[in-house]
Design a protein that fits this description.
The chain is of the alpha+beta class. It has two domains: about 20-75, no CATH class; about 85-200, Conserved domain protein (Immunoglobulin-like). Helices cover about 20% and strands about 40% of the residues. The protein is built from three helices and nine strands. The chain has helices at about 20-35, 45-55, 60-70; strands at about 85-95, 100-110, 115-120, 135-145, 150-155, 160-170, 180-190, 190-195, 200. A hairpin with a 2-residue loop joins β1 (about 85-95) and β2. α2 (about 45-55) crosses α3. The longest helix has 18 residues, at about 20-35. It is globular and about 60 Å long.
Length: about 200
C-alpha cells in the first residue's frame, strides 16, 4: 500500500514556536523510548486535569493522546518488493482453539520477503451484524533478527481470513530455527478486541 506524499498544509509559521516545537518532538521521542510499542492511554481523570491546567479542550487532549497511540513506524516510507527470486515452501499449520493458521510459503524478492498467513475458522452466521460477530480482525507479525514488518493488507469471508506482510530486509533463504511469531486479536461480542495466544512457525 503506497502512501500519498505529505504536503505542508500552509506556508505560515510563527517562528517564536521553533524552540518549543523542537522540545515537543524531543518529548515525543522520549515518550516512545520509555513506552515502547505499548504506550496505552492515560486515565480519564488525569487527562481532564491536564486539559484544565493547560487551558485546553478535553476532547482536543483526548484526540492528541489517541494519535500518540499510533506507532511512528506506521509512517516509515514503504519499501515495495522488487526482483522476485524464489518461493520458500513452509507448509506448516498451527491449531489455536477453533482456528487453523497456515503458513504455506514465503515469497523471496531481492529487497524483501512477502509472508501470507491464512486462518480457517468456524463459519460465522452471516445474518449477524458485523459488530456482533466473534472474528479475528488483526494479526501482528514479529520476526527474529534485524527485520521490519509492514502489514500489507488482507481480507476474508465468514469462515476464513488472510493477512499479508512485507518484511525488510529480505529473510535469508536458509535460517534453521528462525521463529515467525504471529499475535492475533479477536473481536468478541460485547467485549471489544482481545489478544489471542501467540502462533509460532519455525523455519
Amino acid at each position: 500500500m503506497k502512501r500519498m506524499p505529505f504536503k505542508r498544509p500552509t506556508e505560515d509559521y510563527n517562528r517564536r514556536l521553533l524552540e518549543l516545537d523542537e522540545r515537543l518532538c524531543g518529548l515525543i521521542g522520549e515518550r516512545k523510548r520509555i513506552a515502547g510499542t505499548e504506550p496505552g492511554f492515560p486515565p480519564a481523570a488525569d487527562l481532564s486535569a491536564w486539559a484544565k491546567a493547560s487551558d485546553l479542550q478535553e476532547d482536543y487532549v483526548n484526540a492528541l493522546f489517541s494519535f500518540l497511540m499510533t506507532d511512528d513506524e506506521d509512517y516509515r516510507p514503504a519499501i515495495e518488493p522488487e526482483g522476485y527470486r524464489r518461493m520458500l515452501v513452509m507448509s506448516q499449520s498451527v491449531v489455536a482453539g477453533d482456528t487453523v493458521f497456515t503458513l504455506s510459503a514465503i515469497r523471496q524478492y531481492d529487497n524483501a520477503s512477502v509472508i501470507t498467513l491464512l486462518g480457517d475458522d468456524e463459519p460465522v452466521p452471516c445474518e449477524l451484524p458485523w459488530g456482533e460477530r466473534d472474528r479475528w480482525f488483526r494479526c501482528e507479525l514479529h520476526v527474529e533478527g534485524p527485520h521490519r514488518v509492514r502489514f500489507d493488507g488482507g481480507g476474508g469471508s465468514n469462515h476464513s481470513l488472510m493477512w499479508r506482510y512485507v518484511v525488510t530486509p529480505a529473510l535469508p533463504d536458509e535460517a534453521p530455527g528462525q521463529r515467525l511469531v504471529f499475535r492475533p486479536y479477536r473481536f468478541k461480542r460485547g467485549e471489544g478486541p482481545a489478544k489471542g495466544e501467540e502462533i509460532a512457525f519455525i523455519r
